[in-house]
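dumping this here so i dont lose it
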């Protein structure tokens, strides 16, 4: 299993363990990374992650795999990555901002 696959597996486990942090968010996030496409689908208790394009994305984030890892680890701020061109966003910008908060809340409990 690749490191990125492991990250998405951990995100899915955290979401299933405590779905309260995603309350009110029903969206499909797609990540277009150097090594492939991945999705996080927030749909209440039915939330999950997936390889490839399973659903039509509401928000697509395009970035390098390395920058994605840094963002997940809290070493790279999503807003800063966007402003410096390391992150491109297609679709709903508001959802992108919500995602940063959701991932940050899981990241704090994982460490």
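and the seq i came up w/
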């Amino acid at each position: 299993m690749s490191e990125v696959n492991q990250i998405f597996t951990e995100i899915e486990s955290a979401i299933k363990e405590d779905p309260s942090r995603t309350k009110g968010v029903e969206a499909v996030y797609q990540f277009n990374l150097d090594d492939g496409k991945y999705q996080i689908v927030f749909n209440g208790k039915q939330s999950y992650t997936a390889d490839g394009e399973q659903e039509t994305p509401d928000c697509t984030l395009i970035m390098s795999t390395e920058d994605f890892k840094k963002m997940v680890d809290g070493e790279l701020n999503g807003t800063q990555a966007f402003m410096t061109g390391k992150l491109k966003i297609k679709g709903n910008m508001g959802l992108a901002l919500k995602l940063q908060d959701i991932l940050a809340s899981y990241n704090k409990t994982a460490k």
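The mean pLDDT is 88.
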